[in-house]
Each structure stands twice: as C-alpha cells, then as structure tokens.
Amino acid sequence: MRKLLAAATSAVLAGSAMVVVTPPVAAKTTYKACVKKSTGDVRVLLGKKKKCKKGWKKVSWTKAGPTGKSGSPGGPGATGPRTSMGTVIDGNGAVVGESLSTLPVSITAFIVRIDGGIFFYYPNGTLLPTDTVYFKDAACAGTAYARASSPNERDLLLASPSYRTVYRVGSPTLGPATAYRFDSTSESVTNVQFYSRGSDGVCAASGGVYTGYTVPLVPVTAPPDHPGPLKVV
Fold this sequence. Notes:
There is one protein chain. The chain is mainly beta. It is built from two helices and 16 strands. The protein has one domain. Helix content is 5%, strand content 38%. Strands 8, 9, 10, 11, 12, 13, 14 and 15 form an eight-stranded antiparallel beta sheet that branches. The chain is globular.
C-alpha cells in the first residue's frame, strides 16, 4: 500500500503502502511512493529511500491514525458525514466496490474497498499491482513477507489491516493477481537473504542480505479486473 501504499496508502498505501480508513484519533502520517510514468506501477518509499528512479514520479498522501479504545457511551448525536465517496461501477454498470477516494498519479487510480480490503484500480478496470512480495525461499515459495526497516514502519504495517498487497506479472502480458493482507505478527531479522519476483515473474535474490523487520503476508482472494471505464456514482 507500500510499495503503493500505490498509493495508497495504505493506502495507498497508507499503504499499501497502505490505506487504512479509520476515525482520526492522531496526527496524520504522510506516505510517499514512486509511480512509473510509463506503466502506472507504484512502489511505496520505505526506510531511508527518499528519491525516485529516473522515469518514476514521486507522490504522497496521508492516512488517519488507528482507532483508540472505546469510551463511555454518549448521547444521541447528529447524523454524520458519508464514510465513502460513493460506489465504483464498471463499464457495464456492475459494482466494483465502495469508493474511498481517487489518487492522482500519472493517471488516476481508484481506491476501492472490497470485502473489507483496500485495493487500487486503473480507470480502465485493471487491478493495480502495488508492492514487492518477499520470500525467504529461493524459489519464492512458502510464506510471503512485507519488510520494514524501522519499528515505526513495522507498526504502520501492523496498524493497516485493511490494506491489500497485490502482485501480478506485468511482462510480456499482464498476469493473474495474487493478493495478501498483513498478519498481526512481526519478526526482527538479521542478515537474511530475501527473494522476490520481478514484473516478468522470475524469482531472484532481492539485493544483499537484509536486516530489519518482517510482517508475514496472508493470502486473500484477489478481486477481478473489470471492463472500463470505471466511474463513481
């Protein structure tokens, strides 16, 4: 959400990256990501990374803090504002999900809540891939992980239960999507070699050995692509 938190924060990730939509109880956190101008792919900036590579555009967004403990019951209140911006429908009029916002990058990305999870869609109805998924296994098998280089980043992931990490092959053609949610646990690792799949689907070592924090990713059902154009009603 997070490598988008692709906005999105976490949304978009937020972000998901990662976008988590909860009542604000703390100061807003700013999330930053790089968007590839040629494809719209999003990578959330984590750790000490501050700049985007050539051909990528830097974007930022904010996410409300986590919900605090419940207080004593109060009296009846006035009717509150809408919790969403409406409903996202596809080119055939079918419902995609609840519209939370749109993210202006090189093109607009729709932030959509589907079955309690936050996903991102291109206007043409394509489910947007968001983050790098890491594995300890050299074949990119077994448990998948998200990485965080500091306790604050780790806590951000743990506090983003709605954000969904999405991976899909992008070359030579767009492949099926695999989606994950963050587990509620984390692990501190030292000098561990991780592996990840690139946009071509090939599993390879992801840089040198890594020291930091990991959060396990739990597979969830990825929503489908939809016929475009998408719009909010």
